[in-house]
Amino acid sequence: MDDRTVATALDRAVAIIDPVLDLLANRDPVGLKARTFRRPTENDTVLDNVLDTLASALNATDFPGTEAWQKLDADERSEWWVARIGALNTVAVAFPGVFGVLVNRLPLQDLLGFANQSMVLVAVARESGVTERSAHVRLLAEVLCEREIDLSETEQNTEPTPRRDNGPFALLHAMWDVSSVLRDVSSELAKRPHSRKVFRIISMIPLVGGVAGYFGERGALSRAAKQGRRWVADHAEDRRDVRSDMSTTSANLRK
């Protein structure tokens, strides 16, 4: 499969992932995130106490936008996406394993696993200050597809982003959408970090295969995240050079 096809599919995946991550980080429909910054007063009502309790529970999870989140450094925020959101998505990735070897032969688990790792890798990159869509595409290509791609010939997705689900299952819906666009590069899915061999063997057994699949995919996700952090660190100097060149060009134009 040529690089252009892979890059185009990954670009479409990133176009789905970024808005969902923005939604999780910024949306506060009932004001619970904002409420984590307030302190109780003697004039609080029963409703205030209830909302404060809910806000405290949300704050305990270090959810993006809460007071606890503000106290985390970049590494801790990156790990949050792996430990919390990645763990949630991994349930969906591992679920087909309850049916054992019959379903393991289908590409569904690889599709969902690739989508899950893609979402977490983009989140980790964003927490490290890497927000360019092209950088996200290169990151996914190198870590999950083992390809160094040239984006100059990539067919960037210019279609309007479909309206995202704002409900509690927005993340899972997005993972399914990402899986759909990745069907075009199905031959690349097997290159992603996979479960250790022992977990893959146990996952062939019906019922217990789901549990084995979960722990195996969690380990694979952690390895993918580590590779993603290493990629971000390795390319940090390149980004500084680009920003320096842009600053120099801007300064020259102002003269």
TrEMBL record:
<keyword id="KW-1133">Transmembrane helix</keyword>
<protein>
    <recommendedName>
        <fullName>EcsC protein family protein</fullName>
    </recommendedName>
</protein>
<keyword id="KW-0472">Membrane</keyword>
<feature type="transmembrane region" description="Helical">
    <location>
        <begin position="81"/>
        <end position="103"/>
    </location>
</feature>
<keyword id="KW-0812">Transmembrane</keyword>
